[in-house]
Amino acid sequence: MAGHDQARTAARAWLRREQRAGSKLARPVLALNLSGTALAVGQAWCIAVVLDDALTHARASVAGPLIAFVMLALLRAGLAYAAEVAAFGAGAAGRRRLRSDALTRLLHAGPSLLRTQHSGDLASIVVDQIEAVEGLFSRWIPSSTFATAGPVLVLLAALWADPIAALVLFL
What we know:
single chain
């Protein structure tokens, strides 16, 4: 039982270290996602202007906001693609670093390690197990950071537009 607790503690410590290392790799992904959220706020503003005109019959030209909406949508699509490319790059960099670390440890252990573990198991660790954590770097770390930063950005936009609505969103 004590060995199981030590393994769990070691796994948590390893995960914290990897999250810190992965957060550096995830910064471009986060920046692209936050930019996409800012563009979505701009799109919401465009739709609000069009709806305001439709409901108040102000007969103002809505061509500008509609064109801006389409342009913002195209920019968001480009940012989403760039974020996917950056996420893949972050995952690849994380895997590369983990492989290098694992191979360094295996080389330092030397041939005596093969007496206690089968070479196929070691190869599985270096290849398959490291591939399995790709989602940690490319998806989970950027998403967990964006899950807190994205709503704050929307809340700030709502605060600028209508403080009471921002208070409702906050609550």
